[in-house]
């Protein structure tokens, strides 16, 4: 097994383990286990003047309940985010690049 394969398998285990380091969040109205990577990327969109926030959300595909596409909406803990980059992150895990604009 390659290192990448092992890391992906570990990530699946982290999300599937109810007692692990992942946190419970309300996604699309359901409590699910997630890992939220918030690198603090927040800035101002020069074309609109609005604040732009980005983050990555890691979630089990089965917990999300739909196949996200670019532009679809995900509600995370009551806040609407737009899917910017949906990508598989190994078997059963999705990495969603999310963004939102605020005034």
Q: Care to describe what's here?
A:
With 103 residues, the chain is an alpha+beta fold. The protein is 17% helix and 52% strand. The protein has two helices and six strands; from the N terminus they run αβββαβββ. A six-stranded antiparallel beta sheet has the order 1-2-3-6-5-4. The longest helix is centred in the N-terminal third of the chain and has 14 residues, at 3-16.
SSE string: HEEEHEEE
User: Helical residue percent?
Assistant: 10-25%
Q: Could you tell me how far the N terminus lies from the C terminus, measured between alpha carbons in angstroms?
A: 47 Å
Query: What is the arithmetic mean of pLDDT?
Result: 82
The largest sheet has its strands arranged as 1-2-3-6-5-4
Rg measurement, Å: 14 Å
How many helices? Answer: 2
Number of beta-strand segments: 6
| SSE class | alpha+beta
Largest sheet report: 6 strands, antiparallel
Residues in β-strands, percent: over 45%
Which regions contain 5 or more consecutive residues with pLDDT less than 50?
A: none
* Molecular shape: elongated
Q: What is this structure, in a nutshell?
A:
The protein is α+β, with helices and mostly antiparallel strands and 103 residues long. The protein has 2 helices and 6 strands. The protein is elongated and about 40 Å long.
Give short descriptive properties of this protein.
103 residues, alpha+beta, 6-stranded antiparallel β-sheet
